[in-house]
Automatic annotation (TrEMBL):
Residues 1-10 have a biased composition (Polar residues). It comes from Promicromonospora soli. One of its GO terms (molecular function) is hydrolase activity. It comes from the Bacteria. This is ATP-dependent helicase HrpA. Keywords: ATP-binding, Helicase, Hydrolase, Nucleotide-binding. Pfam families: DEAD, DUF3418, HA2_C, Helicase_C, OB_NTP_bind. Residues 334-510 form the Helicase C-terminal domain. InterPro entries: AAA+_ATPase, DEAD-box_helicase_OB_fold, DEAD/DEAH_box_helicase_dom, Helicase-assoc_dom, Helicase_ATP-bd, Helicase_C-like, HrpA_C, P-loop_NTPase. Residues 83-246 form the Helicase ATP-binding domain.
Length: 1559
């Protein structure tokens, strides 16, 4: 596992962070340290003094070979000065250019001084490649084997032994050893090489050593640096500075030197010519005098103009262009042109600097394609060898660069060749001027690895590489102006990276105690305070730090993190995975995140690579993709040989070296985790996806390709990974696409742009601290972005991309965040369901709402306010559900007290809410904040003081009282007794008195009497009535209050008692009549009758008009409840609106009673043989009773009693005098002979069976439905239209129904009886039409009926109506002696009526046909005359005639026309013909007469509307029916007097009937 951070590209250096690793010795050395695997929680085991002494003894016995120095190296000439400085000083700065030999010769100088015996000479290098090559070079010069006197240690490789005197290592290795050896006692000399690079590790080591040196005077420190930074190091390590850090007094430090000794070593440098060849012509022309013009460019036909990047390399800028002069070139083309130019300059190798492995491969491919055979054929006379050089190459491939060679070389290297290594034979350098530089964004808290321009110092280092062996040429692929504008030095890594790892390491080692001490740590260049704060925030996020009593300390998690040699985020994942039993899986993923992606995507084979990689892709998680790949690689390694596995990796676009590194990291992590108690042994928790449950393929992949996806414990793995990625979660931003973004487009282009924009909008996430990012397009999740994701890394290139993402649930983050989650609470409210105060909780994690609008108990936020809400809402206002008896008793007492206040309409009689709150607040403990708390407390408290919370009436109302005779509790009307309630709520609709009417008795309630209100409001009603009168009357009745008292006293003396008035209903004197009489008697003032209109009533205050509330009882027993159907001040309006509901309620009540009665009858019949059957039905219920579904629903039997007598059922009891409020089950109404059972029946074809008393249909039935409510119904035979059947005419049947409205009974019953008679006595159509003459047949064929059958059916119905009408309604030529259909209510009467109809039906039909033919003939004549008239002056007349004719002749007119009016239809139509003739002669007169007819008609329609809005009245309905035909006679009298009228008629007569005072 990595222990070495690097400021260089990942491809060149070691990944990881300072410290955390255990020494692993490989090669010739042996593993050191305690071999016992005991769990350790306090860090690595410290090196003991005995171990150090034993090691020193072994080194003292080592024989040193003779030491020689290459004379050609500049450092050899200064070795005496260097040796003297080292011997005489604790710290020495050796400054020199790269290539001076200081890296390889200074360790030999130290050896010659006797260093390396008491302790080793530690020689640090910033890169693994440099460490290895430097150790090999020193060993070669000493003539020893590597691993002997000279050894090296890098990540995964320890090529050293007990005899090693000079140990070359990466700086990360030395940092790791600080944990085991804080005093660095294993070393007597430390050489920090390439200190000017100022990597994070170097800065930490220098700061640590500056503190350590005063404690260890024997320790020598040699710092080698380029000349650019030597003064800074000399000042930092001056004797005065070291003494000051050691605690020396000021008088001592004042006399010490302020600079450490600096030994300048000149480099082997020759003149270097700089040429600027910018890729873009816009960057400027080459302007320096020493430059020679560039040669003509070569055609590069086989070269790509653009380069591709792997999954982790999208940050490099792609420079597009063509390799032609004056045009922009791409990077590869620029390198080829530069190499061509340099190859013509002479012999010598070329060194090309590039920013990463991918760029090296692209350049190598481009050069190979350009030079063709020269690059491929080693025997070519002009052979050119192209060699890559980067850290991840194998040792053998790296060594090729340093081996002698005959042909020319082009070395493609990362910046590892800039300072650390000297590549032999280099005469020329090509510098694109860029490098990957790790940079931390303080805004987004993201570590980026962008490609940036190098500094001037780095550019000079690069160009200097061409002047080591001879005069050199350096070509810079950028302009001189660009160079001049760059920064002078590379910014130290500590100023541009996350300090989390450094902080963790420093605190765990004990270098600092708290994060605040970091600011005081002796860094060469202190980091920004903000960077330190960001590092602390990250460690706090990971749970590594905690604050105790204001002091920041390392937690147990933090101590474990410090011992895991990897990035703290990744280490935190492993720890969390261990807690959930998935440490192995998480470690595999974490290791994958710590290295470069092992999957490769060459530009020319990108599609093939993607297809092969898709086999491992998981549609919901990129992390699981790594696990799938791991399992596949592991399986293939077991199946294949080493070489075969290498070939397969290459064929499947997998980087073998990275896979090997991946496996090494996992192995090291497993080894490092075992002492910490983290178990990573293999446990098969997954299984390959079977065909039966194969996961859905990733979108965009080949479905036929094999899939290597495994089944994992997804949620557990992701929860563990999330522990290290809390600040890298994202919530999908589903913002709408702005119209302005596509406003400039039209048609298909606009649609395509909208679709693309919507897709992009879905792949848009809001992350921590307001960061906005998108899922990298290479991830399968980018196709269908989830709502919530976590990202393994956020990388900023062209934009901020999330890579290695997975779908998560936001609640996971809440569990892991702990105190990092910020909670806000809003909208405190009372919840009756919860019985507690609730509020809305919003949980934010770094500004991301991981929980929105969650309802939580408000008591957790503000217990005091929650308790107050509980007392006020639950106990005072009753907004909760509880079983406590005291509460229900208190509510009942409050209602009773409230009634007193409402009846008297006086405020302040009853204790208000504040009084009740104070009552409960005094008695309920402070700890009770919800219903649950209350239940627990009250269960104990009520045993000691059961009446603690009980109200008393004295507490509520004191001495206040109200006379209940003035404000009664019920309203009597007839046999009904309706409950009354009182509301004192001014302004509300229900203010005043409300009468509660069960829907089943709604039709029986009349509005009369309610205008008297209740006695207690009579005086106030009288005052309001006086104020509502016209001013001419009102001024005679002042002062109104005094007059009102007199009027009330008079009415109480002269009128019946209030109970008698309201009980009488429509027979009682109205209040306005009594008021009028009283005013006339007391003041001799006459109130005109026209004053008492509806407008005056509407001006009365709302509480002086009765509110009618219709209720319906639902449920039975304890579940019974009353439901308000509607309420209004207008009773008639309610009756019309709820007529169907009222009738259904009556039917329901009666059906239930019938069922009970039949059950009793059957039980009685079974118990006693020979018992009298109940009604005509006997023991069996009429099967037809259930065969018809009418408006009231499926018909079932009901228990009823007949209006003709009391029931003989065993359940029958005495009659109730009051209806509502009296009686019992099966209540009897009336007396007389025995009654029976009446059940609704449908689909009748004859008189209903099963009726009592030999088939008598009672006029009314009643039943007690409980709660003192007696429901009365009115049986009748009614017509019912069958449901519509497609292709068939609607049929009309007859059913026995129980009606709720007595006024409708006779009319509906008569129609039902006639329809039943027609069904039984009807004649065939052929028989009827056979008696028609030819003329009659032709006339009838022109009727408005659809067909002959419909016409004949209507003729027979009209005939039956005429035969069964009363004498005053029958036609003049109808046989007398027929029955009245409305009076047929028994089987015998029906049999007589049927016999009479059968006897006279055929002749009566023939007589009806005669009248119909006459009317149709007149209608046809009128129609012809209207059609023939074409005068424009008669348009209104013609339209009126057409409309009038349509009201007389229409489909169904025969039966719809009253029998006695049918003969007059022909006359009415002939009158219209006469009108047409006269209108042609005098249109003006016709218009005048038509206006008069229209005026009277309007009055008739208004009277009809008034009647419809009022109470049903059979007499008034008959009067209005006569007026309809009086209007026809009026038309005859006005337009055709010569035809005569049926009796006297005039406008005055009609208006007299229509006038309100006419009835």
């Amino acid at each position: 596992m990595s222990t070495e951070p690097s400021s260089t590209p990942v491809s060149d250096g070691d990944r990881g962070r300072p410290g955390g690793g255990r020494n692993r010795r490989r090669g010739s050395g042996k593993q050191t340290g305690n071999q016992n695997r005991r769990p350790r929680r306090n860090g690595p085991q410290r090196v003991s003094t005995a171990q150090l002494e034993a090691a020193a003894a072994k080194r003292a016995a080592v024989e040193m070979p003779p030491i020689t120095y290459p004379e050609q190296l500049p450092v050899s000439a200064r070795r005496a000065d260097i040796a003297s400085a080292i011997r005489d000083n604790q710290v020495v700065i050796v400054a020199g250019e790269t290539g001076s030999g200081k890296t390889t010769q200074i360790p030999k100088i130290a050896l010659e001084l006797g260093r390396g015996r008491q302790g080793q000479i530690g020689h640090t290098q910033p890169r693994r490649l440099a460490a290895r090559t430097v150790a090999e070079r020193i060993a070669e010069e000493l003539g020893t084997q590597l691993g002997g006197v000279v050894g090296y240690q890098v990540r995964f490789t320890d090529q050293s032994s007990d005899e090693t005197l000079v140990k070359v290592m990466t700086d990360g290795i030395l940092l790791a050893q600080i944990q085991r050896d804080p005093q660095l006692l294993a070393y007597d000399t430390i050489i920090i090489d390439e200190a000017h690079e100022r990597s994070l590790n170097i800065d930490f080591l220098l700061g640590y050593l500056s503190r350590l040196l005063p404690q260890r005077p024997d320790l020598k420190l040699i710092i080698t640096s380029a000349t650019i930074d030597s003064e800074r190091f000399a000042a930092h390590f001056s004797p005065a500075a070291l003494a000051r850090r050691g605690g020396a007094p000021e008088y001592v430090t004042e006399v010490l030197a302020d600079l450490a000794p600096i030994v300048e070593v000149s480099g082997r440098t020759f003149p270097v010519e700089i040429r600027y060849r910018p890729l873009s012509p816009d960057e400027g022309e080459a302007a320096t005098e020493g430059e020679r013009p560039a040669p003509p460019p070569h055609e590069v036909s086989s070269l790509r103009s653009g380069t591709s990047r792997g999954p982790r390399d999208s940050g490099s800028p792609k420079k597009k262009g063509k390799a032609r002069g004056g045009e922009e070139k791409d990077l590869v083309t620029g390198i080829i042109d530069a190499c061509d130019e340099l190859l013509r300059e002479g012999t010598g190798d070329i060194l090309v600097f590039l920013s990463g492995e991918r760029e090296i491969h692209d350049a190598a491919d481009g050069l190979a394609g350009h030079f063709k055979e020269r690059a491929r054929d080693p025997k070519h006379p002009q052979h050119i060898e192209i060699l890559p050089l980067y850290a991840r190459l194998s040792s053998a491939e790296q060594h090729r660069v340093f081996q002698p060679h005959a042909s020319r070389r082009i070395v493609l290297a990362t910046n590892v060749a800039e300072t650390s290594l000297t590549v032999p034979g280099i005469h020329y350098v090509v510098d694109p001027g860029t490098a990957r530089i790790s940079r931390y964004s303080k805004q987004t808290k993201v570590q980026r690895l962008p490609i940036e321009p190098v500094s001037q110092a780095s550019a000079n280092q690069r160009s200097g590489r061409s002047g080591r062996v001879a005069d050199g040429i350096a070509i810079r692929l950028y302009s001189e102006e660009d160079y001049a504008g760059r920064s002078e030095f590379t910014e130290p890594e500590i100023l541009r990276t996350s300090l989390a790892s450094v902080l963790l390491q420093m605190i765990s080692v004990g270098v600092v105690s708290t994060p605040d001490d970091v600011a005081r740590f002796p860094f060469v260049e202190p980091p920004d305070t903000r960077s330190i704060r960001d590092g602390v925030q990250l460690l706090t996020e990971l749970g590594a730090l905690e604050e105790v009593d204001g002091v920041t300390l390392l937690t147990e998690v933090g101590r474990t993190l410090a011992q895991l040699p990897m990035d703290p985020r990744l280490a935190r994942m492993v720890i969390e995975g261990s807690r959930h039993g998935v440490a192995r899986e998480v470690a595999i993923v974490a290791a994958a995140l710590s290295i470069q992606d092992p999957r490769e995507r060459p530009a020319e084979q990108r599609a093939q690579a993607d297809q092969l990689h898709a086999r491992f892709a998981d549609p919901g998680s990129d992390f699981l993709t790594y696990l799938n790949l791991w399992e596949y690689v592991r399986e293939q390694q077991h199946l294949l040989s080493s070489s075969a596995f290498r070939r397969q990796c290459k064929a499947e676009y997998l980087n073998f070296l990275r896979i090997r590194e991946w496996q090494d990291v996992v192995a090291q992590l497993r080894e490092m985790s075992r002492p910490l108690g983290i178990e990573m042994s293999f446990q098969p928790r997954h299984r390959p996806a079977s065909d039966g449950a194969r996961p859905s393929p990733v979108e965009g992949t080949d479905i036929e390709s094999p899939s290597y996806r495994q089944m994992w414990d997804d949620d557990t793995i992701h929860r563990s990974l999330l522990a290290g990625l809390l600040s890298q979660i994202g919530m999908q931003d589903t913002g709408e696409v702005k119209a302005s973004a596509v406003a400039h487009l039209r048609g298909p282009q606009r649609e395509v742009a909208l679709k693309r924009a919507k897709k992009q909008a879905r792949n848009e996430y809001v992350g921590a601290r307001g960061a906005r990012f998108a899922i990298f397009p290479g991830s399968p999740l980018s196709k269908k972005p989830p709502v919530w994701i976590m990202a393994g890394e956020l990388v900023e290139t062209s934009r901020l991309w999330a890579r290695d993402v997975a779908r998560i649930q936001p609640e996971w983050a809440e569990d892991l965040a702990g105190p990092l989650a910020k909670r806000t609470y809003s909208e405190p409210h009372w919840s009756s369901k919860q019985g507690a105060a609730m509020c809305t909780e919003k949980v934010l994690l770094y500004g991301v709402p991981i929980v929105s609008d969650r309802r939580v108990l408000y008591a957790k936020v503000d217990p005091e306010a929650a308790r107050e809400m509980f007392v006020r809402h639950a106990l005072v206002q009753g907004e909760w559900t509880t079983h406590h008896r005291f509460f229900h008793d208190n509510r009942a007492l409050l209602e009773e007290a409230g009634e007193l206040e409402a009846r008297s309409r006086q405020r302040g009689l009853v204790a208000d809410e504040d009084d009740l709150f104070a009552f409960y607040d005094e008695r309920v403990p402070d700890s009770v904040v919800s219903a649950a708390h209350f239940d627990r407390w009250w269960s104990r408290a009520r045993k000691e003081t059961p009446d603690l919370l009980a109200f008393t009436m004295e507490q509520l109302v004191g001495d206040a009282s109200v006379d209940t005779t003035e404000f009664p509790g019920t309203w009597p009307q007839g046999e009904l007794s309706l409950p009354l309630t009182y509301q004192f709520q001014p302004g509300s609709d229900a203010d005043g008195v409300t009468v509660h009417i069960p829907v089943a008795v709604l039709a029986r309630v009349v509005p009369d009497g309610f205008d008297w209100m209740v006695p207690g409001l009579l005086e106030e009603l009288t005052i309001a009535t006086i104020k509502s009168l016209p001013k001419t009357v009102r001024r005679e009745l002042v002062p109104a209050p005094d007059v009102a008292r007199d009027i009330v006293a008079w009415m109480r003396a002269e009128s019946p008692a209030w109970e008698d008035i309201v009980r009488a209903g429509d027979m009682a004197e109205p209040f306005v009549s009594a008021f009028t009489r009283a005013v006339r008697a007391l003041r001799d003032v006459v109130v005109p009758a026209e004053v008492w209109d509806e407008e005056r009533v509407s001006r009365l205050p709302g509480h002086l008009r009765m509110t009618f509330r219709v209720i319906e009882e639902r449920g039975r027993g304890r579940s019974a409840s009353s439901v308000v159907l509607d309420e209004s001040k207008d009773l008639l309006l309610l009756q019309r609106k709820l007529a169907a509901r009222a009738e259904a309620a009556v039917r329901s009540a009666v059906r239930g009673a019938v069922g009970a009665a039949l059950a009793e009858a059957r039980a009685a019949s079974a118990a006693s043989a020979g018992a009298v059957s109940v009604g005509a039905a006997g023991d069996e219920e009429d099967p037809r009773a259930d065969a018809f579904t009418g408006p009231g629903g499926p018909s079932t039997s009901g228990r009823i009693t007949s209006a003709r007598g009391s029931s003989s059922s065993p359940a029958s009891v005495g009659a109730s005098p009051s209806g509502v409020g009296g009686g019992s089950n099966g209540g009897v109404v009336g007396g007389g002979a025995g009654a029976g059972v009446v059940g609704e029946q449908g689909g009748l074809s004859s008189w209903p069976s099963g009726l009592p008393d030999g088939g008598v249909l009672p006029s009314s039935v009643s039943t007690d439905v409980g709660a003192g409510v007696v429901v009365r119904g009115f049986p009748a035979l009614v017509e019912e239209v069958a449901p519509k059947v497609k292709g068939q005419a609607r049929s009309v049947g007859v059913s026995l129904r129980i009606l709720a409205d007595e006024t409708r009974r006779d009319v509906l019953h008569a129609a039902g009886v006639r329809r039943l008679l027609v069904s039984e006595a009807a004649l065939g159509t052929g028989r009827i039409t056979s008696r028609w003459t030819g003329t009659q047949s032709l006339t009838m064929a022109a009727s408005p009926y659809a067909n002959t059958e419909s016409l004949v059916a209507d003729l027979q119905l009209a005939a039956v109506i005429s035969l069964t009408s009363s004498a005053d309604e029958a036609r003049y030529d109808t046989p007398s002696g027929g029955p009245d259909a409305a009076s047929v209510r028994s089987a015998a009467a029906y049999a007589d009526a049927l016999a009479f109809v059968r006897k006279h039906l055929e002749d009566e039909v023939y007589r009806v046909v005669g009248h119909v033919v006459a009317a149709l003939s007149a209608s046809r004549t009128l129609e012809a005359e209207v059609r023939a008239s074409g005068s424009l002056a008669l348009l209104n007349t013609l339209q009126d005639i057409r409309e009038h004719r349509a009201t007389l002749i229409h489909d169904g007119f025969v039966s719809a026309t009253p029998p006695r009016r049918l003969p007059h239809l022909a006359r009415y139509l002939r009158a219209a013909s006469h009108r047409l003739t006269k209108a042609a002669e005098n249109p003006a007169r016709d218009s005048d007469l038509a206006w008069r007819i229209g005026d009277v008609t309007s009055a008739y329609e208004k009277a009809q509307a008034t009647y419809a809005a009022g109470s049903p009245d059979a007499a008034r309905a008959a009067e209005l029916a006569d007026v309809r035909w009086m209007l026809e006679e009026l038309r005859v009298s006005l337009f055709a007097q010569q035809l005569g009228t049926d009796g006297p008629v005039s406008e005055k007569r009609i208006r007299k009937v229509l006038a309100p005072n006419g009835w």
